[in-house]
Amino acid sequence: MLVNGKPYRSIWLEENGPCFAIIDQTKLPHQFVIKRLATLEDAITAISDMLVRGAPLIGATTACGICLALLEDSSDAGLEKACSRLLQARPTAVNLRWAVERMRGVLHNVSPAGRVVVAYREAEDICNEDVEINSSLGGHGVELIKQHQHADRPVNILTHCNAGWLATVDWGTALSPIFKAQEAGIDVHVWVDETRPRNQGAHLTAWELDAAGISHHLVVDNAGGHLMQQGSVDLCIVGTDRTAANGDVCNKIGTYLKALAAFDNNIPFYVALPGSTIDWTLDSGADIPIEKRDQDEVLQVYGTTNGRDITRVKIAPKNTPAANPAFDVTPARLVTGLITERGVCTASREGLLSLYPGKR
Ligand code: MRU
Q1: Lowest CB count within 10 Å: 36, 68, 326, 355, which one?
Q2: 317 and 171 within one domain
Q3: Domain annotation covers residue 166
Q4: Which candidate in 234, 241, 279, 328 is catalytic?
């Protein structure tokens, strides 16, 4: 996507390699900072401290982290150590495990001397495929948006967290149909949930939509139900960090409440995902590990007072502790459909198997 007229992806190989570059998402929207990933440690920190985040981008960064680790040690032990370190970086997005398994799969039978070249090629494939996949799911999603067009007003779409191009290598998942709608000349307006505690909606989704010139309003997380009751939401589209084989989806905390409100108001609730976000080993969302993050993310907010420098501000009494579950599970029965690169299906095992035959 374009940033100040220049095309960017969220992660890329630096010219001549071997290091990768990312956009430091902890600094947006106040600063646009590019950071270099030179070591496995850099990649792990980028994932766990959320310089990069969003399930598909976590997967892509994992693949790049393995490349960097192999530069130091391409032995079997080196590969295994890198994989197990990366697997600890964040627990919920299954794309991390997916990327480890894919990289391990191609590297397993390659001699240590040949591993670096193969790893870089595979990581590049993962990144390029992610772009294609998200573009393709956007094409399927825009058909759903078209069903809600009116002559006299825009299609109003509510989204939660950031499932835009910053959460993937490019295009995004939930935002991809919205970017495609804009390309197709469809009048869209987006309600952007701020997404406490880390405010990915306010910091990242609003920034992406603003940069793309797409009409949007930022709303507090609790506004969605009211907007739906008022008839101000035509459809919801969100992303997912892990989709169980029965169609349950695990996404940023608060997604479940939006799905409940959409259900009560008879508003379609769609979830957009690449195939790499499906966990075929899980029969339901009940067993998805829910990340618990630092309480300071709840007890503090961060922003700027001068338009550039980022400051943290405490918002609770000094002795009040906080709980910070980062994700929740939305049961399949509340999901109108899953938008994938292969088309749209019901949120069910049968629906997923119709698009991904041969999976368990
Ligand atoms: O904690 P984050 O910012 O990594 O959470 C991201 C989300 O919840 C996204 O909605 C999800 O990863 C889908 S991204 C295309």
Answers
A1: 36
A2: yes
A3: yes
A4: 241
* Candidate of 241, 276, 338 to mutate for ligand 1, largest count of ligand atoms within 8 Å of Cβ: 241
Q: Ligand 1 centroid vs 166 CA: distance in angstroms?
A: 10
User: Considering only CA atoms, which of 141, 130, 145 is closest in space to residue 276?
Assistant: 130
With beta carbons less than 8 A apart as the criterion, state whether 270 and 236 touch. Answer: yes
Q: Is 210 a catalytic residue?
A: no
Residue 283 lies in a domain: yes
Distance separating alpha carbons of residues 106 and 341, to the nearest angstrom: 23
Which of 25, 252, 329 has most ligand 1 atoms within 8 Å of its beta carbon, as the pocket-test mutant? 252
Angle subtended by helix axes 94-107 and 115-146, to nearest 10: 140
> Structural domain tally of the chain?
2
Question: Do 246 and 144 belong together in one domain?
Answer: yes
Domain finish residue from 61, 95, 130:
130
Report the separation in Å between the CA atom of 339 and the middle of ligand 1, taken as the mean of its atom positions.
Answer: 16
Summarised one tens digit per residue, pLDDT across range 291-302 is 999 999 999 999
Beta carbons of 56 and 69 less than 8 angstroms apart: no
Rounded-to-10 torsion of CA 170, 174, 175, 176: 60
- CA dist 201 and 203 (Å) reads 6
Instruction: Kindly list the protein residues whose Cβ atom lies closer than 6 A to any atom of ligand 1.
Output: 53-56, 93, 161, 163, 167-168, 172-173, 200, 239-241, 251-252, 326
Q: Is the peptide bond before 177 cis (omega within 30 degrees of 0)?
A: no
Contact present, 325 and 252 (Cβ < 8 Å): no
pTM: 0.98
* pLDDT tens digits, 296-325: 999 999 999 999 999 999 999 999 999 999
